[in-house]
Each structure stands twice: as structure tokens, then as C-alpha cells.
């Protein structure tokens, strides 16, 4: 029974990989190249769309395995030359440096599913009433502490929950003064 479930999951992932867009393909290939060969792939030799090379944005790469989170890493603002480089480096980081998980092993590569969120420019908000958990991600900050949550996450249903979780991630007490920014994403899945 377990073998059948694993086979069904792998078949589903193969189906997804056959229909992936350029953003997802770059995330997958970047992590695979790094895990299999220990190097960052040359993204400029791949079939990269012009907008990924000419534009900058923060990017989050989310990796799931059998429907469960396996790694997530990202930037809310660009730190690399372009979106393609943000995706490549954040995919490697999501698979190898997310402190919640052990690094991905080569035996796992065929069971991974990738998601890429390209972050639109964050904007300050003054009130929790300006948030919508389905539409906006949230950044909370106090001094040098920052917490980030992407929009439309399973199990987060209200802005109050979203802010509370972001504050916890940052290590900020709710009684402390903090700033909030919201952002939208272009989600690739």
C-alpha cells in the first residue's frame, strides 16, 4: 500500500514537472545541479525568458515533498543581478540551508515539487485592517528583527493570525512597537 502511494505521488510530480513554467524549471534545475554536482548552474546557457534576466525582484522558492513543506528560502527585495539569479540561489538555499530541515539528498530529488513567488514591491501599512491573508504577504519589523509570511498560506485565515505568526517568527512581542509592510506575489506553481 505504501509503495502504491509513493508511486502515485511520484507520478503526480512527474506530471507537474512536465508542465512546469520557466520559473519552476529554473528552481528545480538549480537545486538538482547543486545536489548532484556541487555547483551553481550556468543559468545564462539555459532557456531563460528575457523578463527573468532583465528584471529584479525578491523571490521565494518553496519546496514540498509529498505535499509537506521541505524547504523555503527567499528575499523580499532583490539582492542578485536579476530574477533568474534570485531563483537559482534561493532554490539552492531552500533545499540546503532552511534551518528547519536537513539538506535535500539526491535520492529525494524525484519527489520534490517547487513553487516560486516573485515579490512585488512591499508597501507600508498602518493598520491590520489593510491586510488580506489571501492577497498580501506581511513583513513585520522591530529594530533588527524581521518576520515574513507569504500570502495565501494554508491554515492562516485572518490578518490577526498572519501578523501574530510573523511576529513570533521574528521574535517580536506583540506589545513591542513594530512596523508592517504588505506585499503581493506573482505565484508560479
**The CATH architecture of the largest domain:** 2-Layer Sandwich
Oligomerization status of the protein chains: single chain
Main β-sheet description:
4 strands, antiparallel
What is the average per-residue confidence, as pLDDT, rounded to a whole number? 92
What key attributes describe this structure?
about 190 residues, alpha+beta, Glycoprotein, Type 4 Pilin, Dna Ligase, domain 1, 2 domains, four-stranded antiparallel beta sheet, 5 helices, about 35% helix
Q: How is this structure best described in words?
A:
The structure is a single chain. The chain is of the alpha+beta class and 189 residues long. It folds into two domains: 2-119, 2-Layer Sandwich (Glycoprotein, Type 4 Pilin); 123-188, Dna Ligase, domain 1. Helix content is 34%, strand content 24%. It has helices spanning 2-18, 22-37, 50-54, 83-96, 159-170; strands at residues 58-65, 68-74, 112-119, 123-125, 137-142, 145-149, 179-183, 185-188. Strands 2-1-3-8 form a four-stranded antiparallel β-sheet. Helix 2 (22-37) packs across helix 4 (83-96). The longest helix has 17 residues, at 2-18. The protein starts with a helix and ends with a strand. The relative contact order is 0.16. The mean pLDDT is 92.
Short structural summary:
The protein has 189 residues and is of the alpha+beta class. The chain has five helices and eight strands.
Give the SSE layout.
Blueprint: H1 2-18, H2 22-37, H3 50-54, E1 58-65, E2 68-74, H4 83-96, E3 112-119, E4 123-125, E5 137-142, E6 145-149, H5 159-170, E7 179-183, E8 185-188
Antiparallel strand pairs: 1-2, 1-3, 3-8, 4-7, 5-6, 5-7
Amino acid at each position: 500500500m505504501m509503495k502504491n502511494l509513493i508511486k502515485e505521488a511520484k507520478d503526480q510530480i512527474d506530471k507537474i514537472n512536465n508542465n512546469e513554467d520557466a520559473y519552476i524549471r529554473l528552481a528545480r534545475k538549480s537545486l538538482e545541479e547543486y545536489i548532484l554536482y556541487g555547483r551553481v548552474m550556468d543559468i545564462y546557457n539555459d532557456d531563460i525568458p528575457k523578463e527573468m534576466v532583465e528584471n529584479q525582484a525578491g523571490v521565494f522558492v518553496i519546496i514540498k515533498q509529498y505535499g509537506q513543506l521541505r524547504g523555503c528560502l527567499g528575499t523580499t527585495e532583490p539582492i542578485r543581478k536579476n530574477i533568474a539569479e534570485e531563483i537559482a540561489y534561493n532554490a539552492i538555499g531552500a533545499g540546503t540551508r532552511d534551518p528547519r530541515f536537513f539538506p535535500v539528498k539526491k535520492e529525494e530529488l524525484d519527489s520534490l515539487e517547487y513553487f516560486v513567488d516573485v515579490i512585488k514591491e512591499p508597501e507600508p501599512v498602518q493598520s491590520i485592517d489593510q491586510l488580506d491573508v489571501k492577497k498580501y504577504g506581511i513583513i513585520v519589523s522591530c529594530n533588527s528583527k524581521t518576520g515574513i509570511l507569504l500570502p495565501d498560506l494554508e491554515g492562516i485565515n485572518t490578518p490577526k493570525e498572519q501578523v501574530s505568526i510573523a511576529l513570533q517568527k521574528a521574535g517580536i512581542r506583540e506589545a513591542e512597537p513594530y512596523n508592517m509592510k504588505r506585499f503581493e506575489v506573482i505565484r508560479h506553481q
